Structures are given as C-alpha cells and as structure tokens.
Amino acid sequence: MRFAKLSLIVLILLAVLVPAASAQENGAGLTIGFSQIGSESAWRTAFTEAVQAEAEARGINLLFSDAQQSQENQIAAMRAWLAQGDVDAIVLAPVIESGWDDVLQEAADAGVPVIIVDRNVDSDPSLYVTRVSSDFVHEGRLAAAWLAAATSGNCNIVELYGTVGSAAAEDRHTGFSQVIDLFSNMTIIQSETGNFVRTEGKAVMESILSSEDPANICAVFAHNDDMAIGAIEAIKEAGLVPAQDILVVSVDAIPDIFDSMDAGETNATVELSPFMGGPAFDAVVATLNGEELPKWIPVGGGLYTSRAAYDADH
Ligand code: AHR
C-alpha cells in the first residue's frame, strides 16, 4: 500500500517536471513534413538537398513533398499530413504569398506547428511559428546599388521577373526599384516574368532583344541566376557580348553563375543561402519544447563580383 502511494507520487512528479512532448535538441526521432515548391532552379535543388542532408544528419524522419509549382499541391500535402496525424511539425516553402490562411488555421487547430522557409506568406503571423529566410528586399537593393555604381546612375534596365505573386520576386523588385528611383537616369524599360526558369529567361530575353534596340539596353537584372544564364545565351546568340554590351546582375550565387563570371559573362550576383534546414529544424525543436521564437529568423548573404571573393567568405 505504502509502495503504491510512493509510485503515485513519483508519477505525479514526473508528469509535472517533464514536458509531455519534449523534443531532443537536434530533433532526432521527430517526423517533419517538408512542402517544397518544386525544382525550377539550381538554387531550389541545392536547397532541397541541403534540407534532406540536414534531416538525415539529425535523425529526423523527413516527409518530402514536391509541389511542382502548384499551391494546390502544397495545400493537399499539408492536409494529408494533418489528416494522417503523423507529423510533429510542417516546414513550408510557399510558392506564392497569398491563400494560406485556411490550411495554416487547420494546422494550428490540429496543434501542428508550421515553420515558413524561404518565401513568405501574407497570413497573420499568429498562424505560424516563425519564418526562416533571407531579406529579399535587401537583395534587390544590393543588386541595384551595384548597378548604380557600375553605370554612374545611367542605365536602361531589362528586368527578368521571378514567379509573379512570390515573395522572392515581389520583394526583389521592390528593393531594386527603391534604389534606382533615387537616380533620374535609371529606368526599367522592360519587365517580364521568366518564372525563375533558365529556358524561360532565355525565351523572354530573345523576345525583348527582337522588340527593343539592343543598343538601348544597358543591363539585365534577373531575379535569379538561372534566368540570367538563359538571358546570357540569348545575348550571345544575338551577337552581343554579355557583361560588356549588356551588364548582367542576378541573385542566388549558384556554381553556374561563378563559371559564367570566370568566362567574363556575368558581372554580379547576390547570395541566397540554401542552408535554411538547420535553423528551421532548430525552430521546430524550440517550439515543441515550449520556447517563444521571433517571427523572423534571418539568413544572411552578400553581393559577389568574383568567385574568389565568394570563396574567401565561405
Ligand atoms: O525563393 C527563392 C527563389 O526561388 C530563388 O532565388 C530562385 O532561384 C528560386 O526559384
């Protein structure tokens, strides 16, 4: 009888002192759903691989879903995980900013924390734990500041836009515009979407070069390196010299863009780190352990005009 009473006291003490869903520091043993946008660019593929490698190193069971650029696919994957009740958390890389309120509310109702990575959502921040990302507006400003310095504030610009409605495209455009608006002779003369895809960047640039006098184009600002590389192919096929006749500045810092810089065909790129898996998984563990997190966990990056400068920083 006395033993039973003692056991009961020990059990009550354990229940009070040990949090029910306490997660290990690195997330080992957790099951996390990762809804990825797709594989539209080399950066996206590197990001997927980095998240998968981080999960494996930590012993996290990662349920990976490739949405192939479809928000409907992303929402369906999240609903399936919630219905099956088999995930401790969801990591969401949202293709566009709007349209997430309902599924985020469903996750909150189910008690499944959601971490936003890379692009942003326009939902109320109370519906997700935090966002791990770079500052896209700053990336646009860096690209524009480099271009303003390189041209002494005189430049007619072709903008190759990313996916319309995505935070990466909208915010890069905003930051870029904020800086060039400070210069009366810097103007975006054409802006068209290439959806962050290399072949689409090339097709858009071909069409622009056929409708615009190439002598009137000073530079291309591409929202990612893949579209820049596509544009460079189009510039060369038009008999022009990229990075000389038409300056090229973009975002991501993928290996291919440094090959292009080595060949003298790209001027500058702004780094977007693909290593967001670690901070995202740390955020999952922290929130499961009851910690409060800031609504934004920034990932840094700078502007590079050579492989040597990039290598020196990494
Ligand atoms: O959301 C980040 C952007 O998405 C990257 O700059 C681009 O390469 C990718 O497709």
Task: State the main characteristics.
Rossmann fold; single chain; 6-stranded mixed sheet; 2 domains; binds alpha-L-arabinofuranose; alpha/beta; 19% strand
| Biggest sheet layout | 6 strands, parallel
The CATH H-level superfamily of the largest domain is Response regulator
Question: What is the CATH topology classification name of the largest domain?
Answer: Rossmann fold
Biggest sheet, strands in spatial order? Answer: 2-1-3-4-5-11
Distance between the termini: 65 Å
Ligand names = alpha-L-arabinofuranose
| Helicity level | 40-55%
The CATH class designation of the largest domain is Alpha Beta
The secondary-structure class comes to alpha/beta
- The structural domain count equals 2
Poorly predicted ranges: 6-21
Mean pLDDT: 94
How many β strands by DSSP? 12
The CATH architecture category of the largest domain equals 3-Layer(aba) Sandwich
Tell me what portion of residues adopts beta-strand conformation.
15-25%
- Count of DSSP H/I helices: 11
In N-to-C order, the SSE pattern is HEHEHEHEEHEHEHEHEHEHEEH
Radius of gyration over C-alpha positions, nearest whole angstrom = 23 Å
